[in-house]
Backbone:
């Protein structure tokens, strides 16, 4: 099954690993900046957002798609 998964990446010509990694880095940066902006203000909404995404990022796993790729970010967690 892993072979079929790797073959899908090669057939499409799209590096989904890079796309997923970019997405995660953009979201992490946005959450990080919100944390800095509202640090020390006692804003509960900002706190909840940072807390939710902290839990989300802890559950992510990196799956190596091929030896030249960094890896794909994967999670089976759904937002509540």
Residues:
């Amino acid at each position: 099954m892993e072979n079929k998964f790797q073959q899908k990446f090669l057939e499409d010509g799209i590096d989904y690993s890079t796309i997923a990694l970019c997405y995660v880095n953009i979201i992490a940066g946005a959450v990080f900046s919100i944390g800095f902006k509202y640090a020390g203000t006692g804003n509960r909404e900002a706190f909840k957002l940072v807390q939710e995404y902290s839990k989300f990022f802890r559950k992510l796993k990196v799956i190596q798609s091929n030896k030249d790729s960094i890896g794909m970010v994967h999670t089976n967690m759904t937002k509540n």
About this structure: The chain has one domain: 2-72. The two ends are 30 Å apart (CA to CA).
